[in-house]
Amino acid sequence: MRSTRLPATWRRLLLLLVPLGLVLCVWQAARLARDQALDTLYSEARNELRLSAAGVSAYLSRHDYLPRLLASREAVGRALAHPGDTQVVNRLNRILDTFRAASDVSDIYLLDRQGTTLAASNWALPHSFVGQNYGFRPYFKDAIQGRMGHFYGLGTQSGERGYYFSAPVWSDVPGNESVVGVMVVKVLIAPLEANWSGQNGELLISDGNGVVFMASQPGLRLTSLAPLDAGVRARLRETRRYDGARLPPLPLDRLSSRPDGSQLVRFEAGPLAGRGFLSVSRTLPEQNWQMRMLKPLGPLKNAQWQAGFLAAGLYGVVVLGGGIGWQRRRLRRERELFASRERRTLAEGQARVRGIIDRTRAGLLVLDERSALTYLNPTAQALFGHTPVAVEGRQLTELLTPADARRIDTLRHAAGHRSAAGSPAIEVVALRPGGQRVPLELTVGPLVSPHGQRWLATVFDISERKAQEQALALARDQLEQRVAERTRDLLDSNRRLSAEIDERRRAETDLRQTQDELIQAAKLAVLGQMAAGINHELNQPLAAIRAYAENAQAFIERGRSDAANANLQQIVELTARMAEISAQLKQFSRRSGDSLTAVSVQAGFGYALRLYRARLLGAGVTIVRDWPADEVWVHADPVRLEQVLVNLIGNALQAMADTPEPRLKLSIANTAGRVRIGVEDSGPGIAEAHLGRVFEPFFTTKPVGKGLGLGLSISARIVEDLGGRLEACNAAAGGARFTIDLPAGAAAPATPRHHAREDHHV
Fold first, then answer.
1. Cα dihedral 644, 650, 655, 657 in deg (nearest 10)
2. E-assigned strands of 42-201?
3. Do the bridges between strand 426-431 and strand 373-376 make them parallel or antiparallel, or are there none, so unpaired?
4. 593-761 in CATH: which number?
5. Cβ atoms of 340 and 357 closer than 8 Å
6. Per-residue pLDDT at 748 exceeds 60
7. In 10 A of CB 398, how many CB atoms?
8. What is the C-alpha to C-alpha distance for residues 643 and 664, in angstroms, rounded to an integer?
């Protein structure tokens, strides 16, 4: 029978034509979908562009009247006539600020004939326009000539983009119709860009020079559509329109133009890098601006893919229908060939199965319904040591040990009630004619046969596996013995390690206790240094108390009780002052706690300064406080922080002992959740060779008997325990500077913008 396959030439031709037809169909469908999607994008962009242009014109034109209205007010003319009258100018400042808030504009200001700002709505702000000269701006030049002025650009003070309206202020002197000033209104253009965020596309506006000054994408602002020549840049610098901005060229690649005037563009770099857009432009004639809408080409690609898949699907259906028809015709012819091949295959398969059974490594035995042996393959003959003739008609159990014979009967009976998979495997021992025993694995299952009930027994030699199991058991016993020995060693090591850990914990406890005692000793040493100052502080109140007591006694003898009461009141106040001085010593000498809380840095400085009040007064030290007006909080222990500040201020006073004009600068700065506390003196500073060793224990440059060299070491350890660090350096103006860096307290308020800086002579 002939083959139903096509000739090779026709098959190769079909393999070429089918993919070619698919490519052609998909290409035409994608091209048509692309054109339709571009037309839709163009219509959407044109409508959105028209609405956006109307919004821009309406936003700018609603403030056009305001400079003319303000220029006619009497207060404006009075300020121009009396520019040196502060009261008149301040009144105009408040009027302009009122109009600014009511009209929702950015700034309103008045220029004199030279272009200098006389009054402004932002007169009270740091970036006030008052005193600034804007004579170079085109809106001033237009208005000073009697015309209405319009201008857009960056503010020279605020740096914000804005649109400026100007109007001339005419003289109110009869017969003198001259321009005496210019009224200017600035409107921010950033709110316009905020309204563009909801559009499906990017919107930008460029001026007559091609500079993009408004865009929905911040990265496109203050760029140019094309490189600017030197003449254009010179004119822009003259008017300071963009106030020194670089104005780099926009990395825009124009791919192609369409008949409707739109363009296909692509950005090579920047925030829109790698993306394609449909660019549609519109002119704003009143401002001489060009507005562009960039619609992303994502919908275009999606439409092309959808059309291509649809065309490919339809093409596939047509090709599949033709293929199915041909395949059905071919199947009818194949069935006839299959029937003849099946008969030949069956005969060949039977011969092949017989050969496999004879050559398999598994022993196969066939039993009849009485469990008598009817067949043994060569592998089974080798395992049992019998020929088929010698065992034909004998029971399988005769070839096994007596114990295994009973198990075989039970196994065969159970296999009859199971599925075709047969019984589970069991281990048996075969008896060879010479008395040799061979361990086997045996399974029994029913066998379908046209001659009645048959059983198929499968046996495998497991002698090698048994030997491996014995070796594995021996290895397991040896491993268990080694594990037990290793476990005893580990228990001994754990006991020694536990003893070492306990000893280390005791050492750490002793070390911490010694450290706390050393810190307390350092505090008591500071108290000893302050003893002379405290003695002076207490002697004055004691002398005054004695004088007041003697006076009171004399007044009582004379019967002047009112005067005596006044002296006694002075005695009470002096004793309160002495109690306050002793309380400071008691507070400084107390031990610190372990819990950390929010601590005021200003309060810690105040406490330390009160302790050294006598020494500061006696040495004539100038104290400079450079910190915020509000409280600054750190996460620390108040006692330990006060001890560090007291130690640093005490060291600073010792360093300035021989300085003619001692000066102590205390600073606080709060940045990024951290607080930096500075103590700077005007002494000789720290030698460069000693900077790396100032925090080492027992290192000191003081004479013998003046210190142990533990103060800075203890202070550094305290700051580390509080989660910070202590640094030392030399100040630029001379002297030493110590800086404490600590985490800000959880209850600390935000860092104020203006810092208070105070100088006091104690």
1. 170
2. 107-111, 117-120, 149-154, 161-170, 179-188
3. unpaired
4. 3.30.565.10
5. no
6. no
7. 11
8. 18
Helix (H, G, I), strand (E, B) or coil at 497: helix
Q: Which residues contact 762 (CB under 8 A, 6 or more apart)?
A: 613, 616, 617, 620, 621, 622, 623
> Whole-angstrom Cα distance, residue 584 to residue 31?
90
Host H or E run for residue 532: helix 531-558
Percent of the chain's residues with pLDDT above 70? 82
Residue 30 has pLDDT above 50, yes or no: yes
Confidence grade of residue 677 (pLDDT, cut at 50, 70, 90): very high
Helix (H) or strand (E) run with residue 703 in it = none
pLDDT tier at 628, thresholds 50, 70, 90: very high
Comparing CA positions, the residue from 120, 139, 115, 126 lying closest to residue 70 is: 120
| 3-class state of residue 212 by DSSP | strand
- What is the C-alpha to C-alpha distance for residues 311 and 317, in angstroms, rounded to an integer? 10
Q: DSSP for 78-121, please give it.
A: HHHH-TT-HHHHHHHHHHHHHHHHHHT-SEEEEE-TTSBEEEET
Cβ atoms of 510 and 504 closer than 8 Å: no
Q: Where are the alpha helices (DSSP H) in 249-392?
A: 298-359, 378-384, 388-391
d(CA 204, CA 224): 11
> CA-to-CA distance for 459 and 377, rounded, in angstroms?
11
In 549-600, which ranges are E strands? Answer: 597-600
62-188 and 360-461 share one fold:
yes
pLDDT > 90 in the chain, percent = 14
Q: Return the domain boundaries, the chain.
A: 62-188, 360-461, 467-529, 593-761
* DSSP codes joined into one string, 666-697: EEEEEETTEEEEEEEE-SS---GGGGGGTTST
The pairing of beta strand 373-376 with beta strand 363-367:
antiparallel
To the nearest 10°, report the CA torsion of 300, 301, 303, 306: 180
Partners of 405 in beta bridges: none
Tens digit of each residue's pLDDT (9 = 90 or more) over 253-263: 777 788 877 87
CA–CA distance, 674 with 742 (Å, rounded to integer): 6
CATH of span 62-188:
3.30.450.20
| Token pair of 58 as six digits | 């309406």
Give the residue-averaged pLDDT of 423-450: 78
Report the 3 state secondary structure along 429-473. EEECCCCCEEEEEEEEEEECCCCCCEEEEEEEECHHHHHHHHHHH
Mean pLDDT of 482-508: 84
Element (H, E) at 427: strand 426-431
The pLDDT score that the predictor gives to residue 724 is 94
pTM of the shown model: 0.40
Pairwise CA distance, residues 320 & 306, whole Å: 20
**Residue 108: exposure state from Cβ atoms within 10 A (0-12, 13-18, ≥19):** buried
Q: Which of 77-81, 333-337, 357-361, 688-692 has the lowest mean pLDDT?
A: 357-361
What CATH fold (topology level) applies to the domain 360-461? Beta-Lactamase (3.30.450)
Evaluate whether 438 touches 404 at the Cβ level (below 8 Å): no
Contact 130, 123 (CB under 8 A): yes
The β-bridge partners of 281 are 292
Average pLDDT, the chain: 79
pLDDT, residue 665, reads 94
